[in-house]
Amino acid sequence: MRALNPSAPFTTFLPSTVSRGSKTQSLLCLSKSKSKSTSTSTVHFDFLASSSAAPFKSLAPLRYSAPPCSSEDLSSPVHDSSAASVVSSSGKSLKNRLRDGETLYGLFLLSFSPTLAEIAGLAGYDFVLVDMEHGPGGITEALHCMRALAATRTPAILRLPETSPVWAKKALDLGPQGIMFPMIDSPKLAKKAVSYCRFPPAGIRGSAHTVVRASDYGIDEGYLSNYEEELLIMCQIESEEAVKKADEIAAVDGVDCIQMGPLDLSASMGYLWDPGHKKVRQMLRAAEKTVLESNPTGGGKGGAYLAGFSMPFDGPVDMKARGYQMVSGAVDIGLFRNAAVEDVRRFRMSLTQSSDEEDDDGKDPDEKYWSE
């Protein structure tokens, strides 16, 4: 696992290339710069510090040296794929990367801050999930975050506040690469969720494809032919009832991913304050096994990939080892909270230490000698 070097020049923290049809071009053309600093400080991702973290290669930002910009780079348009449905710097969609057996590592964005969304994209996350279920923002705020992510070539997933056709329609018109439906407790509800993502006759999604962002405001003429293939549909299992029907939910045609919800599951079992309880973990393991047995790569219809959120008692590397192919390791607000609390703690400790040193210096020389 590579460490991040905060003293390195800014240009070293950008993804190196993006795919454009048959060409591979630089994402941004920036002037070259060199760091004059001789001292460095290193920041590590503690929860991925073990050697088993190697599978999450895309978490560490790629080293980047900006080549000179050519007039061709600046003038040639990019219309090989929808700008709204961002393809990652690897050149493949989330759905295709899952099919290829990759394990994707992402972040939940609850702050609805475009700046934090942009930082997350530049940091190298495989995806960022903009959370409209628990975050304070709605469609407009999600759009601002999606534009920030698009600038970094990072796919966005939108989690809806509820499973409804209206919310699904408005979210899908923004052009996310994935959509997550909360509280899916039965195959019947999973089928409804899929129908909200399909235009008639396959579903009931309302159509404004000639003017919405998802189709590049009508510029992408291939949108109607490709949207089903490119969209990742995720259903959350987060109750005892849902766990019992996990096999049926995963088998619903059109459901691509099953997202485990450990917090709501623990609450439904009476362990709201103890999501790591043995009985909750046992229930999660049973659901995981059921989803993994659905085998989405088996060639037939049905089957879903396993997705989940890491917890203090269940880290990303352990989850990957059990078969998870999408792992969300943190929440933006949680990361900032931890950094802020630690910053204040260190400052107050430094004041205490400084006060102790001053008291020590004010002692009588003889008294100071004997106290030492």
From TrEMBL:
Record's GO cellular component terms: cytoplasm
Ranges where the HpcH/HpaI aldolase/citrate lyase domain occurs: 105-339
Domain of life: Eukaryota
Assigned keywords, A-Z: Lyase, Metal-binding
InterPro entries reported for this sequence: Aldolase/citrate-lyase_domain (IPR005000), HpcH-HpaI_aldolase (IPR050251), Pyrv/PenolPyrv_kinase-like_dom (IPR015813), Pyrv_kinase-like_dom_sf (IPR040442)
Compositional bias of kind Acidic residues: 355-364
Region entry Disordered, spans: 349-372
Entry GO MF terms: aldehyde-lyase activity; metal ion binding
Family the UniProt entry places it in: Belongs to the HpcH/HpaI aldolase family.
Protein name as annotated: HpcH/HpaI aldolase/citrate lyase domain-containing protein
Species in which this protein is naturally found: Linum trigynum
